[in-house]
Amino acid sequence: VPNITASLLLTSHSFLSQEASAMTSTPGNKAEGRVLLPSTIIPNRYDLVVTPDLEAFTFKGEVKIDLDISADVTGNQITMHAKELCFISASFVDLTGVVQAAEEIRVNTKDTTVTFVFDSQIPAMSKISLTIEYTGFLNNQMAGFYRSSYTDIHGESKVMASTQFESLDARRAFPCWDEPARKAVFGVTLIVPAKLHAFSNMPETSCKSLPGGKLKELSFLDSPKMSSYLLAFCVGEFDFIQAQTNNGVMVRVYTPPGKSSSGTFALDCAVKSLDAYDEFFGIHYPLPKLDMVGIPEFAAGAMENWGLVTYREVDLLIDPTKASSNQKQRVCTVVTHELAHQWFGNLVTMEWWDDLWLNEGFASWAENFAADLIHPEYEMWDQFTTGHLSAALRLDALKSSHPIQVAIHRAEEV
Ligand SMILES: [Zn+2]
């Protein structure tokens, strides 16, 4: 049963007044001044069930988070990231099976956190499972879990929903420890209209029709341990084409219905670059599948979500018989860039955002390396000298030039 403050949040869709910050500023050399969640509570696993409503532009969420509690935990509160979510209830169950419901739910809009306050102490040196029910908005701001509008091949207006979490918008889809070093396993379940496709980072493990027949429940294989900013899911109408890599990874390109032939060029680049990276890195691509999806409304060029890479449509889908050489090279290098991140960034991740330059710098180098192997006729390294290198020197000649590594204290500064 929700308490009074939680009910207020649910019914008014408003937030409580500012609370004292629960965030800590870390001492120590490189980490000095970083504003982080307390390290005494460690998330290991999230089981996330999300039910989007593509007509009302809202979603329901329930997340169960398995937490390790360290010896030096103090107090009766648990704080994590959350933004623009409305909370219905929260409770945890400890190792003895005793359930405790949150007495109070405090939202801090400035820190984008939520604090659950319990009656008694959080049990030190133990494990608990925290279950949170909440609702959110399918926004149109291309961040978090958001909606895109588009016109299909029959001229009909359609809505699809997808995610963009880097750097700090996973917290807009579910309450979580939204820091890159807080890696955890994610088990995702999506409840969606029966006629739509839905997918996530990992392959589907089950699909069952729900009573009434209008909705279906799709569950996906557990993810590897990974950062929250790499989680992704999509819901909508799609066609797809697929091909396999030498090491048996199924690669798919999802397109709007009727447009699957526009994905053939990117699919070929993806299969060949996964093969090239498997060999070059000496570690095979670690997931069983790789999906690539064109999103009608997308802020960046593409996003390297592990196993589910999202793209601005023009950076993925082209007609290879009509596209210019420049368009093909663009699609090829965006694909090879995002797939380099599957290792560099996703498998190996910066501890904090001040090393993001290395994540992006390496992918920017590797996009040329793989594109040159796949399409030597592009002469990528000659283009590198006149393109990337001279652009970098031009920037570096300005008075505004700065060190590559810049201290980041709050994730908002990324
Ligand atoms: Zn990148």
From TrEMBL:
Family assignment from sequence similarity: Belongs to the peptidase M1 family.
GO biological process, one term: peptide catabolic process
Cofactor: Zn(2+)
Protein name: Aminopeptidase
Positions contributing to Zn(2+) binding: 337, 341, 360
Catalytic residues (positions): 338
Domain of life: Eukaryota
Keywords, ordered alphabetically: Aminopeptidase, Hydrolase, Metal-binding, Metalloprotease, Protease, Zinc
Pfam families recorded: Peptidase_M1, Peptidase_M1_N
Aminopeptidase N-like N-terminal domain span: 43-230
InterPro entries: Aminopeptidase_N-like_N, Aminopeptidase_N-like_N_sf, M1_APN-typ, Peptidase_M1, Peptidase_M1_aminopeptidases, Peptidase_M1_dom, Peptidase_M4/M1_CTD_sf
GO MF: metalloaminopeptidase activity; peptide binding; zinc ion binding
Claim: RNA-binding is one of the keywords in the record: no
Domain Peptidase M1 membrane alanine aminopeptidase: 265-413
Gene Ontology terms: cellular component: cytoplasm; extracellular space; membrane
Keyword Amino-acid biosynthesis: no
